[in-house]
Amino acid sequence: MTTIKNYPKSFSHIGLTVPDIHKAVKFYSEVMGWYVIMQPSTVKKEKETAIGQMCIDVFGDDWSEFEIAHLATSDGIGVELFSFPHGIKEAPEFNPFNTGLFHFCIQDPNIEELIDKIVAYGGKQRMPIREYYPKEKPFKMCYVEDPFGIVFEIYTHSYELTYSSGAYSK
């Protein structure tokens, strides 16, 4: 019998729509420490360039321009920020029960300090910091929001360590 092994794909980037791209770049670069690899710039709807045509393919015809910026995490994951002038500027209602993107997660061993910084920049702490395996593993987590209402999670340890049975086992 043959087993087809599918090689795990790597994560490239996530795209986030924000109401104010300059404020978002400031938040994510100063609070998260993410590298700004492309400052905010304006993309106009046009068919003369590959990027212009690609954006029409993705967004359709009901737009004239938007702003975009690119950041990267310490492990090379991209964060693509979009700001559309005529989009709704309020965060969507938090509803993890509906199909769609629920959250993303970042990792920082000093979860308390990061949450304090998120709150100082206008974000929110959505719950108390919790331990996954109290008295077994030193792993903590917490859900927070950025200043725009985008919900994300913070882990103190890697995903693999958090869920592997051998990590910190007695």
From TrEMBL:
Keyword Lyase: yes
UniProt cross-references to CDD domains, sorted A to Z: VOC_ShValD_like
A Pfam family this chain is assigned to: Glyoxalase
GO biological process, one term: L-methylmalonyl-CoA metabolic process
Keywords linked to the UniProt accession: Lyase, Metal-binding
Stretches assigned to the VOC domain: 10-157
Record keyword Lyase present: yes
GO molecular function, one term: lyase activity
The protein's name in its UniProt record: Lactoylglutathione lyase family protein
Organism: Mesonia algae
Highest classification ranks of the organism: Bacteria, Pseudomonadati, Bacteroidota, Flavobacteriia, Flavobacteriales
